């Protein structure tokens, strides 16, 4: 399949947008790299690489959709290495980051040789690295006193992690969590710290050995830096310096960017947080300020108990007053901490205690401000989890435009950037305006105004022939999904499809309850198959079982919709129980939808339908992973065929052959399974 260009052709203007010292072009270096790696070059990969090089050269932003199998990592890594200034690559998932650093970049560096600067480094958040101070000095308890070692099996695991970290330090290792012995989150917290708990390199007796500082030093010496969306957001948008100065950022898995930036800018506060901060401060504050903060925690707990879970259109007065009280008490407690010179040398317990008060103050201050640019809600809590106040930005496109896109050249790439067949929805969500898009000849689609940020959109297609390899089946005859989960008709349909496929099915469900109901029905009626449900074991273990036995079904929720890579006969049926619109009571999505309506737009299409289109495209993308894969994507929600928005959603999916005839689909699945 040849690449097709949406709105514009690749950047032009320079006959040789990027070249090595010996004059090699992007195309030539890419061809050499692909050959050295034993692969085959694809038209889409070449078109993408040249477009990325052009964007880096002329400083125009680029959105490039590259289907699975295009080889997009090489298509942006080659021009990144050839660019004359530092480039940052930001991914959404640790899995892709690991693939880039452990496989793609080392092999590319070996293939390119010494033609260009091939130095590279990885940067992650501080809590992803072991902390030598915590390992050697102990972990402060809630009162700030150092606790030497937890007991029992956890103590044994922490000993193992400590020994590993010391070995990493001795051998010049990275100290990254990914390389550590198997462990739980709780165990890892015993050997790591967040940014608020860190003493800082200048004050820490182990600052020279610190894994984080070593990683940062390496980044300062490197041409290419690999990081994640969250760290990029903290550096560029929140203005906390985390990444050395750079010229261009390539954002892979860009369909997840706004969600990750939102997550990085979301804060939480509970009465327990305030209470813990007050308790930790008792040892370091001589006056009554820590007691006052504890009293404020009780007031907040009472206010939360009187408030209904969900989003606050207007903050209840009792809650607003409690937040102001917590803010002021936290500020007073911070002021009461003695200066470091008055209390001796740097103290990990003191730093941690003060950091917890600082965090309470910052979150209470933000929530008490009740800004129109923020959304505040109360979580429902659970059996062991008390309700928490949460605050998140109403939108992130504004800060992204002002603080990232205005200063840097940005390349966005993903297999899923065109929703409804167009780049506009994703471009708008990241801070680019459809009117600023460059069309053929390099002119802007709309009127040019001061501060405009021109961008190009490029779809390089896919090496897969979806019309021949995949069927999209919409179960039009089924009743629309109800609030009570899967009904008898849907369960019958699932069993019949799985039976025809003889297993080999990945079920993507809108809720855990639906996934479990489907699994139970298949186990009962098709006992000869192995049926796994998310929660039966850890996801990597379930995925391994799913891959090893073709006669297996794997049913789950959101974490299966993206990132699961199961090529071959393992997966010939992808089931989607319903269009994955956000829940009507989702605080942030409902607020964004209302804001879009108030601004004169269509909130449902801009927020809910766009969210659903993105997830459906990602879910459908689990089916075809290689040129030899075949199968069916079965959507059990008739609204995809009957509703007005169905066309927008279908245009966001790969161009599969489509049918609503269940008999045709069952026969196709039976042929594929050989039954």
Key terms:
alpha/beta, Rossmann fold, de novo design (two linked rop proteins), 4 domains, 26 helices, globular, hydrolase, DNA 5'-3' helicase, nucleotide-binding
Number of helices: 26
- Summed up, the domain count is 4
**Strand segment tally:** 20
Please state the overall shape, judged from the principal axes of the Cα atoms.
globular
Question: How much strand content do the residues show?
Answer: 5-15%
Distance between the termini: 32 Å
- The residue-averaged pLDDT reads 89
CATH third-level topology of the largest domain: Rossmann fold
Structural class: alpha/beta
Task: Give a quick summary of the entry.
With 675 residues, the protein is an alpha/beta fold.
What is the strand and helix layout of this fold?
Layout: H1 26-36, H2 43-58, E1 61-65, H3 72-82, E2 87-91, H4 94-112, E3 120-122, H5 132-137, E4 139-140, E5 146-147, H6 152-171, H7 185-189, H8 211-220, E6 224-228, H9 229-236, E7 248-251, H10 257-264, E8 267-269, H11 271-281, H12 289-305, E9 310-311, H13 317-336, H14 348-369, E10 374-378, E11 389-393, H15 397-405, E12 409-414, H16 424-430, E13 455-459, H17 466-469, E14 470-474, H18 488-501, E15 505-508, H19 512-525, E16 530-533, H20 539-548, E17 552-556, H21 558-561, E18 573-576, H22 587-598, H23 603-620, E19 631-635, H24 639-642, H25 646-651, E20 657-659, H26 662-673
Parallel strand pairs: 1-12, 1-13, 2-6, 2-7, 3-6, 7-12, 14-19, 14-20, 15-17, 15-18, 16-17, 18-19
Antiparallel strand pairs: 4-5, 8-11, 9-10, 10-11
Helix pairs in contact: 1-3, 1-4, 2-3, 3-4, 9-10, 11-12, 11-14, 12-13, 13-14, 18-19, 18-26, 22-23
